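From the methods appendix. Each design record in this collection lists the tokenized structure first, followed by the designed amino acid sequence. Records were kept in a plain field format so they could be parsed without special tools. The example shown here is representative of the layout used throughout.

RECORD:
FOLD TOKENS (162 positions):
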């Protein structure tokens, strides 16, 4: 591990422990040249998890790609970085918990859609418009109507029928 301060390759581990969520290893390190201290996090890489794309190609699961798609959907919305990280963690955990080592990109899209729908309706609409590749305004309108109908149903259920 190179020192982020001076670039020296010789660093030593001072302390090791589990992260707060238990999904990674936290290590405190110290540079042997400049004595700069820093923290690293090691996350296991599940190379066996593969994603089957719509065109039939298979590629390794990419956590950063998943995060980038979610971040685009929640851009300029009142959704914190911590919430995005938790959402990515939840989806990755869901995928890892499945028996199959090859998951479809559509499954990932559905998981993101479900989570965004409960988190932020605008982010959900943004995401599904790209994920479902809306090509006509009517498709967008149908999805928006479905969200609004669900909101109305929820309102009526919580306040009693009008």
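DESIGN:
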């Amino acid at each position: 591990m190179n020192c982020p301060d001076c670039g020296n390759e010789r660093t030593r581990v001072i302390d090791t422990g589990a992260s707060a969520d238990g999904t990674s290893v936290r290590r405190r390190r110290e540079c042997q040249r400049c004595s700069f201290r820093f923290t690293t996090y090691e996350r296991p890489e599940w190379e066996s998890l593969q994603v089957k794309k719509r065109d039939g190609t298979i590629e390794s699961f990419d956590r950063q790609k998943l995060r980038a798609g979610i971040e685009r959907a929640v851009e300029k919305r009142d959704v914190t970085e911590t919430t995005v990280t938790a959402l990515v963690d939840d989806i990755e955990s869901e995928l890892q918990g499945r028996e199959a080592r090859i998951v479809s990109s559509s499954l990932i899209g559905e998981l993101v859609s479900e989570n965004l729908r409960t988190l932020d309706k605008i982010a959900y609409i943004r995401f599904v418009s790209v994920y479902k590749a809306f090509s006509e305004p009517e498709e967008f309108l149908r999805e928006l109507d479905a969200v609004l109908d669900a909101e109305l149903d929820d309102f009526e259920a919580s306040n009693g029928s009008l």
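APPENDIX NOTE: The first strand starts at residue 11 and ends at 18.
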